[in-house]
Amino acid sequence: MVLIVIAAPAKGTTFVNGNYKYKITKAAAGSKAGAVTLVGPVKKTLKAIVVPDTVNIGVKYNVTAIGPKAFMNNKKATKVTIGKNVTQIGANAFAGCKKAKTYVIKSAKIKKIGAKAFNKTKKGAKFKVPKKMIKKYRKMIIKAKAKAPKVTK
Question: What's the predicted TM-score (pTM) here?
């Protein structure tokens, strides 16, 4: 019997999975999932941006952050969905995404939304967030420069 052990990529390694590029921020250990930051799309022509809960490259990683300027000036996107494991959104992450009308935030764990993350986005965009997070997220989204956002459950 031959046992092949696949080593998990080290912290700081970048890789592509599907339509997105990721950077490992915490290496996976044994059966414990690691953590990655979504650093951007492979192509800026995505109409629907979906930040997954996890990615699997032989080893499972939770997508815990969206990097600074990850989707900046994406002119095509009309809808953004943010996965349940995201804890922070980087500065200018969605700045200039003028056509995005709807942002669905599944995570109830977001601790930080970076400066100008929603700067120059569509006025009156809808943000669907977990019910218990409406008040907290509304403050964070407005502080991140969203214009007249409609934050609902």
Answer: 0.93
Q: What is the pLDDT along the chain (153 residues), one digit of tens a residue?
A: 555 555 678 899 999 999 999 999 999 887 789 999 999 999 988 999 999 999 998 889 999 999 999 999 999 999 999 999 999 999 999 999 999 999 999 999 999 999 999 999 999 999 999 999 999 999 999 999 999 999 999
Return the amino acid letter for 42. V
What one-letter code names the amino acid at 109?
K
User: 139: part of which helix (H) or strand (E)?
Assistant: helix 134-143
Rounded distance between C-alpha atoms, residue 133 and residue 48, angstroms: 24
Q: Which stretch of DSSP H or E encloses residue 63?
A: strand 60-66
Token pair, residue 36, equals 């990655």
Amino acid at position 113, single letter: I
CA distance 151 to 57: 34
* Helix H or strand E segment including 135: helix 134-143
Torsion angles phi and psi, residue 140, rounded to 5: -65, -40
Tokens of residue 139, six digits: 């403050």
Among 19, 23, 45, CA closest to 36: 23
Cα separation, 38 vs 28, whole angstroms:
16
Asked if residues 91 and 117 have their Cβ atoms less than 8 Å apart, the reply is yes
